[in-house]
C-alpha cells in the first residue's frame, strides 16, 4: 500500500536531474507524473532507493509546431496532449489515444514521457509511437540521442534508455489529412487494452500482442502490395506472441487483433 | 397529507457532503490517542503447514512495539462444537462455528488454508512502519497441495481438515426426483461464480482496553452482535464491552458482526494494554474479507411443449472457502427459494457444502437468494429454448396466479402477497417488448455484427428471514420537545435517520428537523439486531412506529393530567403538533410541556418488536444488451425493472436501493469474478484486476412503480435492499445468451466477459 | 502547499503519500483511501484545480501547489452547486466514495461545463461507487451542470 523507504530529490534543471540520477546509479529512477512508477512502488514491485523528481522541469512540457514536425515535451500530461488543438489537427491519432489512457485523474498527472519510458506492453502510447514513426529524443551526461520508435522498445518494461538518460521530447511528422484509427478493446472503459491497434497512413501497430508494442509488418506488406483492408487484416497476428491472462487466451487475442486491425484500417481508410 | 410515501431528501447528507463521514479510520477519540497501528502478516500460500515463525528481525525494525502470533492470542479455549445434525437457525447472523473439526483460529497455528489467512500481527508506532516490519516476519511454510474448485474438493484427494475425514461439511443432497410425465426435460450444470462484495470502505477496527472495559470501533452492520461475538472471543462479560459503529462505508452482508481480524485486533489491544488501530488495504480486502456466491448448480427442468413446467430440481454444491463460517446457511436459503415465483408441481432441492483453499464465503447482497433466482431463471430460458417458446410467455404460464396467496411454495416458503404476472406484464410493457423483439428480428435478418439481446427475469425473495429475532426502538421526547430515537438498526447508507424521522413526524406531528436518530453504539443502544437481510424498515421502522404509539398514549395521559381533562377528550392536533382538548384549541400544550410534566421518568417508550414475520417482495427485470458478435463484447443498453416491496415509505430511498442492487446484480452477470489459479493464488486481488463495475458500463435504469402492500405489518413494508440484485443478474445473463441464441448458443456462464461470449459463439458455429 | 486556501507547511518522510498528508497532517479526513492500485478514486482531490488521485501523488510532489479537498468546497457556509446537486438527487448513500466523486465531478464540469450523460459516465470512470449504481450520481452532475430540473423533495 505504501512504498518502501526511499530518498526523494528534486531537480531544478535537466542538468541537475541527470547529475542526481547519475549519482544514484542503478537504484535511481526519474519521477515525472508518477502514475506508472508510484503504483508499482506502492505494491513494492519496484523499490528504487532514490527518486529524482523532474516534475518542476516545466520546460519539458510543451507541444510545439516545428514546421514539418511536431515536438511534444516528455513531461506533457496526457490531458494536455488529448486537448491540444494543434495535435487535433496535425496528429489526431496521438491526441485521441492520450484521451483514452486510464481515467481523467490519471490523465491530469500521467505524462507521455513517463508512459513511454515505462514501456508497459499493454499501454496505449508506445504503439502510437510506432504507427506514427516517432523519434524519441534523450539527454544524458554524455549528450543527446535521437532514437527511432522502432528501436526504443526493447522488451518487457525495457527501453533503449540507459541509466541516467532522460527522455526529453518526442518528434512526429505532421499527419494532417492522413487516415488514422485507434482501436482499444477493453472489458471496462478504464481497463488496460486486452488488445489495441494504432493505424496511421500505411503503418499498423499493436498493443499487448507481445512483450513490446509491435508493428503488424505482414499487414503493412499486404496493404503495400494492394490488398484490401479486410484481406490485409487476416495477417494481423503474424509475428506476435500474446500472453494468456485472466482476460484472454492466445487464440482470442489473435482473433481480436485481426478484427481490430480490420476495423482500424476501415476507419482510417474512410477518414483519409 | 401524510409525509409517508413522499419524496424526502436525506437528513444524513449535509454532514457527509461538507465534512465527510467519520469512518473508523477517521475516528479521533481521546481513548485512541497514541494508538499503535496493526499490520497483519498473511499467508502467501493457499495451503501449507507452518513449521515456525521467526519474529526477531521484525521486532528489531523501527517503531515495532510487538509481534503477536497464535501463541499470544489464541489462549481462550474454543467453545464446544455445535451439535451435529440439527440445522443452524436461518439467520444471517449464524455464529461462526468455533471448536470442533472445522475450527478457525484467529491467527494460524500450524496450518494455513487460504492466501490471506492471518498468521501474525505487527504493532508499530506509525502506520507506514507496519508494512516495513511485516515484511521482516519470516514464516517457514511447507506447502501442501491446494484444493481449488468444487470438483477437486469433492474428489477428496487432499483434505483441508484431516480429522474431518472429508471436505464435505454438510451433505443434504436431495433424493431422486421423478421427471416421468414430462415430455421435455433439460438438464444443465451452471456456475454461480464467486464474487467479492467490495464495499468502498474495507474492514477496519480500533480498540482500547482501559479500566476493565474494552471499547471497539468497528466497521460493522451490527454493533450489538459484534459486542456479543467479542464477549465470547475475549472471555468477557458483554457488559464490559462497548462497540461503536461510526459511519460505515458499505457492508453488503460482509460486515455482519465483527470480522475475525477485528477480533484479533481487540485481543491485541487487550494483550498489550495499548490502544490499537487497524485498517486493511484493498488487496487484503479482496483476499481476506469474505466472498459471495460460489455455487455450482445443476438444474433440471421438465414439462410439456405447451409451456407448462411440471418438475424442477436444483442441486447445489456450495464452496465455503477454507472455513465454513456460515455453515449451511447460504445454500439452505437457496433451497428454500428454489421454486421462485412459479407454481410447479414437483420441486426438489438439495445441497452440499465443501471447503476449498480459498477465501471463506459468506453473505453478499442477497445471500443465497440471488443464487436460487439465477438458477431457475436460467432453467426457464433453457426450457423455453427447448420448446421454442418466448421466454416471457413460458414464465407467464407458470407464475403463481394472484388468487393463490398466501401461497405455500413447494420448496418450503409461504409467500404472503404478490402479483407476479402483473409485474411481468408491467415490465414488458414498460420496456416495449414487442418493439424490442421486432428490432432483434430485423438485426438477425440483416446479419448485423451487433446483435440485440432481451433478457427477462421474474423473482420472489424472502426478507426479514429472521424476523423472530426482532428489532428495537426507544423513542424519547425530550424536555424541549425534540425527539431522540435509539434504533437497533444500523444504517450504512440506507437512510434510516431520514426514514425513522419521517415515521415520527407522521405519528407524533413533531417535525423531522426536531428528530435525532442514534444507532450503532452499544452504550446507547444495548439491544438490537442491526441492518442486513433487508429487514430494517419492516422491523426497525415498525419498532419505531410502535414506540411512537406508546409514547403518544403516555403523552395523552400526561396531557390530560396537565390540562385537567379526561383522556378521552385529548387529541394531538396534526397541524400544530399540540395536545388539545377536542374542540377547544385555546387549551393546548406543546410536546415540550407534556414531556416536562413527565418529571424525572421522562416521556419515552422502548419496544422490542418480535411480532414480525418474513415477507416476500417480488418483481420482474428486463435487460436489453448489444453484443458485438465479432469480439464478444457486451453492452447493457437498457435495464427496466419492477421491484415490488410493498408500501414505499420514501421513494427517494427505495429508488437508491434498487439502483445499487441492480448495478451489483448486473456486475455479477457482466464482469465480476474472483479467480484463483490452480495453486490457490488469487488472480484478481486488486481493483485493477477485479472488474468492479464503473459508471461507464451502466446506463441509467428505468424503474417502474409497483406497491402490493404487505399485510403483516402496519407499514405495509417488505424489504427492498437486496431485491434489485436478485432480479438483475438473471435478466442480464439471459439477455446476453438471447443475443446470440440464433447462432446456436444455449448457455454462457457468468460473467459474460468478451472472451466467454466469443468462445460460446465460436463453439456454436463449429457445431453447426 | 496551500490546502483549501490556507498555507500548510510540514516535514514528512519522503515516501508520504499526499492522501496521508491530507488526512494525518492537515487533519482533513473527508478524503478516503479505497484501494492500492489507483483504481477507485475515493482519494480524488483537486491539484491546481484539476482532479488527481492523491494516493498516487507524493506529498513532496504537491509542494508549492494548491490543493482543494471536499472540506474546502463550500464557501461562507454555502454548499457548492455540485454538493447541493448530490443532495438534491440522492447521489450518495454510505458516503465513502462521495468526497472523491464530488471532486471528480467539480473537475469534470470545469473542463466540460455542459456534458452529455455519456460524457458524465465516462468522465467519472475513475471513481468507483458500490452503493448507488451511479444512476443518481449522474443525475446530480447533470443537475449541477444546469441540464435538468432537480428532483422535487423536501
What features would you highlight for this structure?
heterotrimer; B: 768 residues; alpha+beta; Aldehyde Oxidoreductase, domain 4; seven-stranded mixed β-sheet; five-stranded mixed β-sheet; 19 helices; 29% helix; globular; C: 154 residues; Ubiquitin-like (UB roll); DNA polymerase, domain 1; 2 domains; 6 helices; 33% helix; disordered C terminus
Return residue spans of chain C where pLDDT drops below 50 for at least 5 consecutive residues. 149-154
> Order of strands across the widest beta sheet of chain C?
2-1-5-3-4
User: Largest sheet of chain C at a glance?
Assistant: 5 strands, mixed
Low-pLDDT residue intervals, each spanning 5 or more residues of chain B: 85-97
Basic shape of chain B: globular
Return the CATH topology of the domain at 292-463 and 614-766 in chain B.
Aldehyde Oxidoreductase, domain 4
Helix content of chain B: 25-40%
Structural class of chain B: alpha+beta
* CATH architecture verdict of the domain at 292-463 and 614-766 in chain B: 2-Layer Sandwich
- Give me the secondary-structure category of chain C: alpha+beta
Number of strands of chain C: 5
Count of helical regions of chain C = 6
* Sheet with most strands: strand arrangement of chain B: 3-5-1-12-9-10-11
Strand content of chain C: 5-15%
Number of strands of chain B: 28
Overall residue-averaged pLDDT value of chain B: 95
Biggest chain pair interface: B-C, 61 and 59 residues
Binned strand content of chain B: 15-25%
Amino acid at each position: 500500500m505504501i512504498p518502501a523507504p526511499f530518498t526523494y530529490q528534486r531537480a531544478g534543471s535537466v542538468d541537475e536531474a541527470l547529475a542526481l540520477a547519475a549519482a544514484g546509479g542503478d537504484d535511481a529512477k526519474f519521477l515525472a507524473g508518477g502514475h506508472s512508477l508510484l503504483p508499482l512502488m506502492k505494491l513494492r514491485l519496484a523499490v528504487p532507493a532514490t527518486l529524482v523528481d523532474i516534475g518542476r522541469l516545466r520546460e519539458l512540457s510543451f507541444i510545439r509546431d516545428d514546421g514539418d514536425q511536431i515536438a511534444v515535451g516528455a513531461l506533457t500530461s496526457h490531458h494536455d496532449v488529448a486537448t491540444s488543438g494543434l495535435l487535433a489537427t496535425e496528429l489526431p491519432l496521438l491526441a485521441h489515444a492520450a484521451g483514452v489512457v486510464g481515467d481523467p485523474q490519471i490523465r491530469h498527472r500521467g505524462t507521455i514521457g513517463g508512459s513511454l519510458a515505462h514501456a508497459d506492453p499493454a499501454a496505449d502510447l508506445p504503439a502510437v509511437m510506432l504507427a506514427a514513426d516517432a523519434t524519441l529524443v534523450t539527454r544524458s551526461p554524455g549528450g543527446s540521442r535521437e532514437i527511432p520508435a522502432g528501436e526504443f522498445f526493447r522488451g518487457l518494461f525495457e527501453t533503449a534508455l540507459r541509466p541516467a538518460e532522460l527522455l526529453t521530447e518526442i518528434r512526429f511528422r505532421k499527419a494532417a489529412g492522413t487516415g488514422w484509427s485507434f482501436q482499444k478493446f477493453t472489458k471496462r472503459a478504464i481497463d488496460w487494452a486486452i488488445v489495441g491497434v494504432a493505424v496511421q497512413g500505411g503503418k499498423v501497430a499493436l498493443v499487448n500482442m507481445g512483450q513490446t508494442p509491435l508493428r503488424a509488418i505482414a499487414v503493412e506488406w499486404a496493404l503495400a502490395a494492394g490488398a484490401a483492408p479486410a484481406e490485409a487484416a487476416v495477417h494481423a497476428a503474424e509475428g506476435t506472441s500474446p500472453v494468456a491472462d485472466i482476460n484472454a487466451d492466445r487464440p482470442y487475442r489473435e482473433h481480436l487483433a485481426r478484427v481490430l486491425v480490420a476495423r482500424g484500417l476501415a476507419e482510417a481508410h474512410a477518414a483519409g | 397529507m401524510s409525509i409517508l410515501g413522499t419524496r424526502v431528501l436525506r437528513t444524513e447528507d449535509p454532514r457527509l457532503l461538507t465534512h465527510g463521514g467519520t469512518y473508523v479510520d477517521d475516528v479521533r477519540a481521546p481513548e485512541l490517542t497514541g494508538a499503535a497501528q496493526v499490520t497483519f502478516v498473511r499467508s502467501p500460500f493457499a495451503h501449507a503447514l507452518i513449521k515456525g515463525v521467526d519474529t526477531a528481525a521484525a521486532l528489531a525494525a523501527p517503531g515495532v512495539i510487538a509481534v503477536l502470533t497464535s501463541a499470544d492470542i489464541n489462549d481462550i479455549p474454543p467453545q464446544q462444537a455445535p451439535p451435529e445434525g440439527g440445522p443452524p437457525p436461518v439467520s444471517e447472523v449464524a455464529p461462526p462455528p468455533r471448536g470442533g473439526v472445522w475450527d478457525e483460529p484467529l491467527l494460524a497455528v500450524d496450518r494455513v488454508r487460504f492466501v490471506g489467512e492471518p498468521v501474525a500481527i505487527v504493532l508499530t508506532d506509525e502506520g507506514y512502519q507496519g508494512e516495513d516490519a511485516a515484511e521482516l516476519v519470516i514464516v517457514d511454510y511447507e506447502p501442501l497441495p491446494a484444493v481449488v474448485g468444487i470438483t477437486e474438493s469433492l474428489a477428496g484427494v487432499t483434505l483441508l481438515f484431516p480429522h474431518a475425514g472429508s471436505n464435505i461439511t454438510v451433505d443434504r443432497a436431495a433424493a431422486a426426483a421423478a421427471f416421468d410425465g414430462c415430455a421435455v426435460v433439460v438438464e444443465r450444470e451452471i456456475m454461480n461464480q464467486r464474487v467479492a462484495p467490495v464495499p468502498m470502505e474495507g474492514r477496519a477496527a480500533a480498540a482500547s482496553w482501559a479500566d476493565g472495559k474494552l471499547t471497539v470501533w468497528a466497521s460493522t452492520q451490527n454493533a450489538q452482535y459484534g459486542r456479543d461475538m467479542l464477549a465470547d472471543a475475549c472471555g468477557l462479560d458483554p457488559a464490559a464491552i462497548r462497540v461503536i459503529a461510526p459511519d460505515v462505508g458499505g457492508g453488503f452482508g460482509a460486515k455482519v458482526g465483527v470480522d475475525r481480524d477485528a477480533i484479533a485486533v481487540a485481543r491485541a489491544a487487550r494483550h498489550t494494554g495499548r490502544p490499537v488501530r487497524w485498517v486493511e488495504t484493498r488487496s487484503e480486502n479482496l483476499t481476506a474479507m469474505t466472498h459471495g456466491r460460489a455455487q455450482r448448480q445443476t438444474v433440471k427442468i421438465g414439462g410439456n411443449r405447451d409451456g407448462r413446467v411440471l418438475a424442477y430440481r436444483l442441486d447445489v454444491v456450495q464452496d465455503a472457502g477454507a472455513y465454513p463460517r456460515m455453515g449451511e446457511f447460504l445454500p439452505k436459503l437457496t433451497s428454500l427459494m428454489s421454486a421462485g415465483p412459479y407454481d410447479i408441481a414437483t420441486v426438489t432441492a438439495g445441497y452440499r457444502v465443501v471447503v476449498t483453499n480459498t477465501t471463506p464465503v459468506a453473505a453478499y447482497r442477497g445471500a443465497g437468494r440471488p443464487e436460487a433466482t439465477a438458477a431457475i431463471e436460467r432453467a426457464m430460458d433453457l426450457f423455453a429454448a427447448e420448446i421454442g417458446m418466448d421466454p416471457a410467455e413460458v414464465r407467464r404460464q407458470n407464475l403463481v396466479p394472484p388468487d393463490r396467496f398466501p401461497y405455500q411454495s413447494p420448496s418450503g416458503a409461504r409467500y404472503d402477497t404478490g402479483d407476479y404476472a402483473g409485474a411481468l406484464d408491467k415490465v414488458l410493457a414498460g420496456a416495449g417488448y414487442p418493439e424490442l423483439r421486432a428490432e432483434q428480428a430485423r438485426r438477425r435478418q440483416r446479419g448485423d455484427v451487433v446483435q440485440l439481446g432481451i433478457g427477462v427475469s421474474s423473482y420472489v425473495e424472502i426478507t426479514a428471514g429472521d424476523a423472530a429475532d426482532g428489532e428495537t426502538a426507544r423513542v424519547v421526547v425530550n424536555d424541549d420537545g425534540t425527539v431522540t430515537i435509539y434504533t437497533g438498526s444500523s444504517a450504512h447508507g440506507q437512510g434510516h435517520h431520514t426514514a425513522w424521522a419521517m415515521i415520527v413526524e407522521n405519528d407524533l406531528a413533531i417535525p423531522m428537523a426536531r428528530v435525532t436518530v442514534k444507532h450503532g453504539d452499544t452504550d446507547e443502544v444495548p439491544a438490537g439486531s442491526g441492518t442486513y437481510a433487508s429487514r430494517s424498515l419492516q422491523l426497525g421502522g415498525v419498532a419505531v412506529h410502535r414506540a411512537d404509539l406508546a409514547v403518544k398514549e403516555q403523552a395523552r395521559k400526561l396531557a390530560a393530567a396537565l390540562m385537567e381533562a379526561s383522556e378521552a377528550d385529548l387529541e394531538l392536533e396534526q397541524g400544530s403538533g399540540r395536545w388539545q382538548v377536542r374542540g377547544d384549541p385555546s387549551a393546548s400544550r406543546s410536546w415540550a410541556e407534556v414531556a416536562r410534566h413527565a418529571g424525572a421518568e421522562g416521556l419515552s417508550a422502548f419496544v422490542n418488536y418480535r411480532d414480525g414475520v418474513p415477507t416476500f417482495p417480488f418483481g420482474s427485470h428486463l435487460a436489453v444488451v448489444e453484443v458485438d458478435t465479432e469480439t464478444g463484447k457486451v453492452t447493457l443498453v437498457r435495464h427496466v425493472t419492477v421491484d415490488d416491496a410493498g408500501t414505499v415509505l420514501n421513494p427517494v430511498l427505495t429508488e437508491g436501493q434498487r439502483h445499487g442492487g441492480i448495478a451489483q446484480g448486473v456486475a455479477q452477470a457482466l464482469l465480476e469474478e474472483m479467480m484463483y489459479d490452480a495453486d490457490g493464488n488469487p488472480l484478481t486481488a486488486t481493483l485493477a484486476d477485479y472488474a468492479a463495475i464503473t459508471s461507464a458500463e451502466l446506463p441509467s435504469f428505468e424503474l417502474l412503480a409497483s406497491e402490493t402492500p404487505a399485510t403483516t405489518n402496519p407499514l405495509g413494508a417488505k424489504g427492498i435492499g437486496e431485491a434489485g440484485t436478485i432480479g438483475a443478474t438473471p435478466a442480464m445473463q439471459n439477455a446476453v445468451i438471447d443475443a446470440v441464441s440464433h447462432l446456436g448458443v444455449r448457455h454462457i456462464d457468468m460473467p459474460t466477459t468478451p472472451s466467454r461470449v466469443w468462445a460460446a459463439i465460436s463453439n456454436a458455429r463449429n457445431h453447426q | 502547499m496551500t490546502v483549501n486556501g490556507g498555507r500548510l507547511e510540514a516535514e514528512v518522510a519522503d515516501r508520504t503519500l499526499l492522501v496521508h498528508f491530507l488526512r494525518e497532517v492537515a487533519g482533513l479526513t473527508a478524503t478516503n483511501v479505497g484501494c492500492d492500485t489507483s483504481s477507485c478514486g475515493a482519494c480524488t482531490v483537486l491539484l491546481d484545480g484539476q482532479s488527481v488521485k492523491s494516493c498516487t501523488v507524493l506529498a513532496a510532489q504537491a509542494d508549492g501547489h494548491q490543493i482543494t479537498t471536499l472540506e474546502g468546497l463550500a464557501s461562507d457556509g454555502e454548499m457548492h452547486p455540485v454538493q447541493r446537486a448530490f443532495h438534491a438527487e440522492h447521489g450518495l448513500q454510505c458516503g465513502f466514495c462521495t468526497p472523491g466523486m464530488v471532486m471528480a465531478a467539480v473537475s469534470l464540469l470545469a473542463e466540460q461545463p455542459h456534458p452529455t450523460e455519456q460524457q458524465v459516465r465516462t468522465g467519472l470512470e475513475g471513481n468507483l461507487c458500490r452503493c448507488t449504481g451511479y444512476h443518481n450520481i449522474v443525475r446530480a452532475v447533470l443537475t449541477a451542470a444546469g441540464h435538468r430540473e432537480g428532483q422535487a423533495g423536501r
